[in-house]
Amino acid sequence: MPLRNRPFSRDAAGAHRFVAAVAAGFLLNALLVLGDFLETRWALLPAQISLELAFVMALALILPRRRGGTGALQWLLAAVLLGLILLRLADIVVPWSFGRNFNAAVDLKYLPFFIGLLHGSLNPALFIALLLAVVLALLATLALLRFSIGILAGAGPGLRLWAFAVVALLAGLTYTVTPSRYDLGSFPVAGTVAGTAWRNAQYFWDAKGFSGRYLAQVQAAQAALPQSPDLNALKGRNVLLIFVESYGAITLTDPGLAEALNPVRARFGENLRAAGYHVYSSLLNSPITGGGSWLAHATMTTGVRIDGQPLYDVLLTTTAPTLGRFFRERGYRTVVAMPRIQQPWPEGAFFSFDTVLNDAAFGYEGMRFSWESIPDQFVLEKVHAREIATAGKPLFIQYVLSTSHLPFDSAPPVIEDASNLGDGRIYDRLDFEEYPPPAQVFDNQRGYVGTIRYVLDALGNYLVRRLEDDSLVIVVGDHQPPLTIAAASRNKAVPIHVLSRDPGLLDPFRQAGYGAGMTPPATTTDVGMESFLPWFLRSYSTRSEPAAVAFDDPRAGHGR
Fold this sequence. Notes:
This protein is α/β, with parallel strands linked by helices.
């Protein structure tokens, strides 16, 4: 038998090839079965044998075996493995950072945002150095994977089989000493990265609407809505739905955050009561946490619990009725204020908004604050001047405030007399609060407190000093903040505060168990944000109606 095919050749070259094959197999196995090392450091140990490694070993039979050559197939396989490993890393990090599973169909769209976030948080030299370090690390990993594959491809079948056996033995031994609290399953075998890749392939498949299962979810939720609610109990009053970025129940449950923000809420409530408002509060369970605000907005205004981009994408392919459409059909003018949108937003038509106020619509010329945002007080004032002060018909206005967005690094001052805001250049001359993010941006609790305090103070100033009518105002968080302590809580609840100078307008909320004042009666809830729309439509209609029939699907009658 040729020397190179003998598993335990007595010559040095054979021994070196065997050791190299074991080392290459061990490295690939460790990368392919990487566990949740943020939960436990035990996950860094390769305590399982990778099914993907077995595939690579088998594939090595057909790969080029040139010792000094490049081997295009080897480079291709190395690139595929690198992509799978990066997917696995994202699958580990995203749940801890945002409290939700990684979804490539959603999160790859965030990549430019995170690069911009780092660019804005770091000085230019450090940002460039970090970028270069990441690029070099990726290239080095790619080269290491290619080198390991080359070693396995260059080994004979017998040598490769024995190397795989040794790697499997080491994994089995590690499996036996791993603490039982770290659940590895019943057998020391895993298809970790393949499972991650398959799940994300399904996300993309569903996002395109090919599977049909998300469409069924949308239809079921929307069929439960009343068919033609009259909304007469609103008495033709304006309805202001104000989403506060990252305003979560962690502000109630975390002792440090509660100690800092409870007095702010109390002052907010006292000032409103002095101005003639009545206030009730509760909690809603958001479909997401840490990010993906638009999913929460859509959940509340469509009655569909939208916890991922694929479902959202499928929703937009339907003619599902929305809160905006119900208001429009009752004679309301519908407006959405989205100061962070810097491009056309065609989805506004789906949500039945007559006007979409994006960044350009505000004509803001001043300095930007956290997440390059326009100050919330400026947004409230300009929408008031443009829409409320000149309204000829009742209004439904949806606000998407953004000053309390990650990285929570700055907050503008509240200007007592909002008529002095002008085009925003006044902020260039005023002192403001800065909260430099720590090394871990998801631990910027000081900045989070500062930005939420600003939002509540700005809202209080607007409601007391500018809003003079009996509007129904609904202030609600979109999701828990992207803070480590919030992700660890596994609590998706967000506060909701409802207020008006007309106490009768708040009776449905009071009867539903909302507590008087700014403090919700609980700190957790199973009442989903998706329940708001059907409840609201029925509660503010003066006639009882059966549930609606299923809405028209634009693909109906086309074989679906």
